[in-house]
Each structure stands twice: as structure tokens, then as C-alpha cells.
Amino acid sequence: MDQHAMEMNVEDIQALLPQRYPFLLVDRVVGFDLEKRTIDCYKNVTANEEFFNGHFPGHPVMPGVLIIEAMAQAAGILGCKMTDRKPGENSVYYFAAADNVRFRRTVVPGDRLQLTAQFVAEKRGIWKFSCQAHVDGTLASSAVITCAKKEI
User: Fold this and answer.
1) Band of the pLDDT at 2, cuts 50, 70, 90?
2) Which residues contact residue 113 at a Cβ distance below 8 angstroms, ignoring those fewer than 6 apart?
3) 10-151 CATH choice from 3.30.160.270, 3.10.129.10, 3.40.50.720, 1.10.760.10
4) C-alpha triplet 48, 40, 112: angle, nearest 5°
5) pLDDT recorded at residue 83
6) Domain locations along the chain
7) Residue 54 to residue 50: CA distance in whole angstroms
8) What is the pLDDT of residues 71-103, one digit of tens each?
9) How many helices (H) and strands (E) does the chain have?
10) How much of the chain, in percent, has pLDDT values that exceed 70?
């Protein structure tokens, strides 16, 4: 299969990530490039999301922390694909830090959150990724995400 255009559906994503509904925030991987160490994913944001009940009634806005989590999940998928990690291995990658976080626009029901991640560095089980979230080609958020490997 072409590593530059491989798609993954939600079942494929669940085979790599431990998150499940309502906390799985990547709906589809539309492509990744292992040579460039990048991934492109998306999250469809719907009015049915549970967090909109309280954030904010009458003015629904996706919480920034969930946008960061969605970017971290995209980075996690990329890390799994880069290491060819198989489901059921005795380790998990935890979200360890988010640096240089910026929010540029709100994300609301009906938006498609385009998620990208690019591998930056790895040292002793600590991984860094440069991540972005766009809506309709406009930058919504960006961050440098750090993940740490933990044996379980």
C-alpha cells in the first residue's frame, strides 16, 4: 500500500489508540508520509458532541483543550505508524506536554477540524511533534506536542 496516501477509518484508528467515544477525537486519517514524517487527519465537529451542552449554551464552542487533545491523537497515530507499533504491545504513549499553544479561531458545530502533525524529535522515549488544526484552510490552533512512552 502506498505510504503517502494511506487512509485509515475509525476502526483502524482504534486499533492504534486507546481512546474511545466520547474521547476519540480523530475520525479519519486521509494520508501520511513516513519519509516526511507527517500525517493528515480530520475530526468532524457536530452539534451532538456532549461538550457543547456546557461549552457554551447558546454559543457552542469546541473547548481548546479538546482541540489540543485531537492534535495529540493525530501525533500518536503518526508515532505508531513510524515505529510500526502493533496493538497489544506492553507500552502506551502519554500526552506529556503542549508548548507554544496558540488559538486563532473558534471551532463550532459543522466545522471539519483538519489535523496535521509532523515529527520533530525523539530522545529516550520522549517524542515531539509540531501540530496544527485548520478549519476551511484557516489556522484554528497550533502546538508542539510531547508524548512519553510508559511500559504497562
Assistant:
1) very low
2) 42, 43, 44, 45, 62, 67, 70, 107, 133, 134, 135, 140
3) 3.10.129.10
4) 25
5) 87
6) 10-151
7) 8
8) 999 999 999 899 887 656 677 889 999 999 999
9) 2, 6
10) 94
pLDDT recorded at residue 1: 36
Q: Which residue among 4, 55, 59, 134 is the active-site one?
A: 55
Lookup: cell for 131: 501540530
Which is more confidently placed, 92 or 106?
Answer: 106
Of residues 83, 77, 73, 93, the one with CA closest to residue 32: 77
d(Cα 86, Cα 46) in Å, to the nearest integer?
31
Residue 54, C-beta contacts closer than 8 angstroms, at least 6 positions apart: none
Tell me the residue ranges of DSSP E strands in 48-111: 91-103
Confirm whether 59 is a catalytic residue: no
Strands 112-123 and 28-33, by their bridges, are unpaired
Predicted model pTM:
0.93
